[in-house]
Amino acid sequence: xxxxxxxxxxxxxxxxxxxxxxxxxxxxxxxxxxxxxxxxxxxxxxxxxxxxxxxxxxxxxxxxxxxxxxxxxxxxxxxxxxxxxxxxxxxxxxxxxxxxxxxxxxxxxxxxxxxxxxxxxxxxxxxxxxxxxxxxxxxxxxxxxxxxxxxxxxxxxxxxxxxxxxxxxxxxxxxxxxxxxxxxxxxxxxxxxxxxxxxxxxxxxxxxxxxxxxxxxxxxxxxxxxxxxxxxxxxxxxxxxxxx
Length: 244
Hints:
CATH architecture of the largest domain: 2-Layer Sandwich
CATH superfamily of the largest domain: Phage tail protein-like
Order of helices and strands: EHEEEEEEEHHEEEEE
Number of strands: 13
CATH topology of the largest domain: STM4215-like
Largest sheet: 8 strands, mixed
Shape: elongated
Structural class: mainly beta
Helix content: 10-25%
CATH class of the largest domain: Alpha Beta
Number of helices: 3
């Protein structure tokens, strides 16, 4: 069994960078920190993002998605004729379930057809499976977390840019910008900016302000999940055959 993270740290930082670029004056670059052998951006004013904490905000929430479909496998080609319910989530490399399907077979890509529906897919193991009922269910384990990102705001206009960042991160404007990125990331607030002079490689002091941005990141860990197709209820007798 393998697990996949639906919202990664890199994607959360991509969402934050998109918002910062939209909010700050034109021409200010925003880059990720802790990148070795990479010089500072060319411009005088720029922002560096460094994630520093990600404490949990709540307990896990389990989200289930079942998919049942009719299909067959020839070699590494899975042909889905029809889908009874659900969507085949190829992006998360789902595990394929079926009576004669080789154990550990995953769906790796979709070649043609309706996205997540009827069409042709590829699977990880070559095999022959006659047309019949197949499944590829998922369970999503959602953990809401608070991601703290330290922003180092460099340049002669760093104080003003830090004020912009700390202000918009407590506004609906930032909420709308994050929503537009398509990632499940929401701003909570930003701490007060503080001046942190920076000593560069030439032993010169540069203007720098730092501001910690607090984000809620709702990541989901996805894992394969089998579901019951039908339940058969019967009576076991004699009852006396079992110890009391």
